[in-house]
Amino acid sequence: MKCAIVPPYVLARIAEAHPRLPVAADAARRALSELEPLNRARREAGGSAGPRGGTAVAATLRRRVSDAGGREELPGVPVRGEGHPPTGDPAVDEAYDGLGAFYSFLEAAYGRSSLDGAGFGLDATVHYGREYDNAFWEGSRVVFGDGDGEVFNRFTVSLTVIAHELGHGLVQFASPLDYQDQAGALNESLCDVFGVLAEQYVRRQAADDAAWLVGAGLFTPEVSGTALRSLKAPGTAYDDDVLGRDPQPATMAGYVQTSSDHGGVHINSGIPNHAFYLAAARLGGFAWERAGQIWYDALTEQQLPRDCTFPAFAAATVAAAEKRYGVGAVETSAVQAAWEAVNVMV
């Protein structure tokens, strides 16, 4: 399964920016041309479920970062392995640190040993392609482009981007979800959720203090925007004369019916994203401890169907909250209220 973080509707807007942004426009066109092969590979590969919940398997962190050297060939040349010192290449060292941060987050917060719960080795490839405008989960590793320099910086600059892509590996092993319609939007949302939680864990930020942004720092200063997506306020991450305005809805009232982007997986993920934010904000404190635990339990213990809908996932989170905290508990009530607020009925 291969999942890219930059939505095709963003790349399409950039591709139209020639001759104003010639480098970015060319880079976006090339990235767009590769999305269909990536998506075809995703459909053919499907997902493979491994251990679902936490595990007692003794495992150690195993990282390996490779350099594609500007070619679109994987895995590239290994340049930094576990325990090796920094290389001085920002992309290599950011990827290495990001892999470790996500591993530590899963282990400390949920007792999970890596993506599969059994010590899965974490591999990354950097410097993929020439001015490549994306990052993606390839099915066994995360891959990062360097960006075009006009719209996007290098994709390793944001921990939430690294964690989001690793999140696709977590979903792949825990509860594979079809990359289509609401199931695909849930897939994207879960990766956003665990991406921002990993960043909050590293920074020791409480829900009230966090930015709730995915991809902060990814845009160059020329872009009028703060990130690719906002869980706190979907639809407000950017408003730029090239990119347009962030189209994500926050509630089902704005749900987008479309055949593009696999039924709007990147657009409609704003709805479950916002539900998570509302639950976390209502509970307060560190979001990974209660709200995150409930979402993690729903993903790993509730036997989600591959074609899971928003209401089905909402029901799974309520069931997970009831199982862990009890019927009528403040945690359960917060989850129920969050889904009702985004007009998803449980």
TrEMBL record:
This is Neutral metalloproteinase. GO terms for cellular component: extracellular region. Signal peptide: none annotated. InterPro entries: Metalloprotease_M4 (IPR052759), Peptidase_M4 (IPR023612), Peptidase_M4/M1_CTD_sf (IPR027268), Peptidase_M4_C_domain (IPR001570), Peptidase_M4_domain (IPR013856). The gene is prtS. GO terms for biological process: proteolysis. The keyword Secreted applies. Residues 176-344 form the Peptidase M4 C-terminal domain. Its EC number is 3.4.24.-.
